Each structure stands twice: as C-alpha cells, then as structure tokens.
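3.2 Worked example (two chains)
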Amino acid sequence: QNLPEGRNQLHTQCQQIVQAGNVCPGVEALQFLPLYIMGMLKSPAFRATNDISADMRTYIWMRLETLMVSQMAAYYYPRMMSLHNAPDSCGVPDEQGNVQLPDMLNLTSESMTQDGVYLLDDGDAISIWVGSAVDPGFVHAVFGAQSFDQLDPAAAEACLGTRGDALSNKVAAILRQVRADRPVPFMQHYVLRQGDPRETRFFASLIEDRTVGLQSTYSEFLTRMGYRPQQQQQQQAPPQQMPPGMRR
C-alpha cells in the first residue's frame, strides 16, 4: 500500500471501531483510540507533508518495527511536563532511587505559557522548550545563562545538570528518571529557545492542536470519528464531563 491508502485505512478503521463502540455501555476508554490514531497520522511516519524524504520515512518505518509497545506509544503520543513550576516532591529520589515526575500535560499549546520551561519526551529524544518570559533565576540556575536573551542552546545543553544548584539537581534528576523509563535508545536532550526554528518539531508533537500533519484538533477528530460520550448517549444532553484532552 502507498502512504495515502495507509492513512485512509487508519482513518476508516478508527471510525468504524468508534462508531461500533458507541452502542456499547462502559467504553469511555474508547476515546483514546482516536487519540493514538491521530498521533500516528500526525507523526513523521504517516503525515502527508513534503518535509519528510522517502529515505527518512523508510528509516522511520524500519525503526518503528524494532520498538516495544511502550516506545511506540511514546512516539505517537509523547509526554510533556513543566519544569519551571514542578512541585517540591518532584525530582527527589526515594529510597529505591526512583524520582517522581511532574504531571503530564495535554499535548496542546494551551498547556504552555511564555514564562514556562517544558520537557517533551517522544521516546527518541528529549526536547526542552524555554519561553521568552522565563524567570532569569531559573535560566541561571539550570542553564548557566544570565537571561533568556543570553541563553545559548548548545552551551545550555552541555551545562544542564552540572551546576550543582538545588534547582539544577532537581531538573537533572527528572531527566535521569525520564531516561530510566525508556533506557533504549539513549535519548539526547536538546534545548530550544522560543522562536528558534528548531521548535517546529516540538510544536508538531503537540498533536491535540492543529499541526502540519493534520489540521484537526483532538476534539474535532473525535467528532469526525463519530465518538459520543456515554452521558450524551444516555441522557441525550450535552455531556457533563469531557473526555481527557477536550475543552469546552
């Protein structure tokens, strides 16, 4: 099959499964199938854009065939967490050496602010996006720069986790835990300033937004697939609770 046929088959099968599930009680978890299918359609492996060469797409497909299910899930639905406001309980090893990570955020720009610092883990690499209004104290403690304007991504990548500051150690511990969760392959980390051309890949991974891979949000894609929340089916009224990732 060629790429358009593969995309159409994913779309059609997802729609058929979701619509069949609408008549069954207790299938709220079915909303996550469109989420992962949408992640597939927006990924470099399947998205219908010209920025992925045939050779690169072939490499991606071959690599995907070697991944475990957990790694593949991370590739299609990365996890994003904030570093600038992580609770005190995060980044501190317990007796077994495990580190509590910040809560996962929905993969949408609505989860982000310009004064934030966000880590995105797609199972292949770790991207750390730094907003232009970030606290200079955080930038100095973690990246060794005096301000956002003086932040050099390459120097920040080399400096990360080496400052010895309590905040630096906290971020370093979070990084180690993220890598420990997915030990193979070793994930390099990259620091991206807001406005950096490289941030395109970061925002392409925010699959709950409209992206270059598919001009649909998660809620729009759910609707297109024919998903109906259980409360709506039972009460014939707008649902009181929206599925995760959806916003009124």
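3.2.1 Second chain
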Amino acid sequence: MVTVAVDAAGGDKGMLVNIEAAYRAIKRVPKLKIVLVGHQAKIREHLTQLHVPSDRVEIVHAEKTVEMGSSAIEAARDSETSIAKGVELIKQRQADAFISVGHTGAVAASAVLRLGMLNGIERPGILALFPTMGGHQTAVIDVGATTDCKPHNLVQFAVIGTEYVKHLLGYENPKIGLLSIGEEPSKGNAVVKKAHAILKESAETLGINFVGNIEGRDILSGNVDVLVCDGFVGNILLKYTE
C-alpha cells in the first residue's frame, strides 16, 4: 500500500476539488491510501457528500492554510499549516509522498527545512515534464524553486534531471541542454556561460550527456531530454506554456 498525503486546503479551486481528485485516485489505484491534510470538520463534510470509503482515507487536522501572498520562509516555519504538516508526514515516514497545488514556495521551503537536502545538492529545483513535437517528454528544471542561481546550482539541476528521467521515464543516456539565448558557449549571461563551461568540462565525471545550449525556439522540439534553467526563467516558461 502506498500512502500519499494531500494538501486538502491548497489551490485556487477550493477544498472540494482536491478531495474529489483524491477520491478518483483511490478508485483508480487499488493499493493507494490518501491522507487528507486540512481542517478536519470541513474535510469530513466533503467526504460525506462524496461518499468516500473511510478505510482508505485518513485525515490529519491542520488549523491553518498558507495564503498565496504569504512569505514562503515564514510559512515554512509555521508548523500548524497544512503544507508543513503534510511534509512532516514524510519525515515521520507516515506518508510516501506529499501533493499540494497551493503555495509552491512554501512547499519547497518546508521540504528543505524539514527533510533537508541530498548530499551534493545545495538548492531545491522543481522539475516539470513538457510535451514535445517528438512525442516524448522533456524534463525542465528549475521551474520556480530557486530564482537566483549560481553556476553550480544549474550543474546540480542537470544531475537531478538526468537521474529523474533515467529512473522514472526510462531514458537511456539522456541528453541535457542548458537554456540560453544562443547555441554558442559564448552566449548567455555570466551564470549561464559559467555553468556551460563547468558542464562541458565535467560531464563525464558527473555522468551526464551534456549537448550544449538550447535556444527558446527549440524547447518543445524534443532535441533534449532535460532542459536546465534557473527558477525565474523556468517559471515564466512554464506559465507561458500553460
């Protein structure tokens, strides 16, 4: 049985949408248990309305919801929010995953604060899968967690993206591209140019297949399996594509 915690209170559409989605998930996946994190009384009201079976749904009460205008760091430090309690369930090994469509920054900050970082990774990166004209998916990282990156952060994102597509998508020797304003190594801002130099020099040591810079017009071409950029550019790209 896989246990997934869900931020019942997060998102723009309200609690009912989140609970409906959780209900659909347990109907489709027999070995799935859902932990709904949020205001207990409100969750129970919606569960009754939807006739959700109680044996596969658990409730963890959270008094507070992170508002979209809140500071990510301040929200992460508040242990009474639905996001903080959801991440804490992973730390306590009471859940295998946590899903929230609420405050992205608060989720990332809370995860770093409560779960820590992997060895060799200094800053968090959010990965999103983009459809391509080639028919397969390209992983773009970062799409919003770290807006101000240093060159080595981008290099670390390349490693994360490589491991993700290899192990979760089954890509062999995935091609890694760095988003820039031109294909030439001399193109881009100082951070991108330095990251390019490190990736080119250290690709074999890092175990990645770096193919160079990728321009904006080629993002959806399918020419690379992982596209690396900072979270500021990546978030704009994600929302423009949506």
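3.3 Remarks
The first helix runs from residue 15 to 28.
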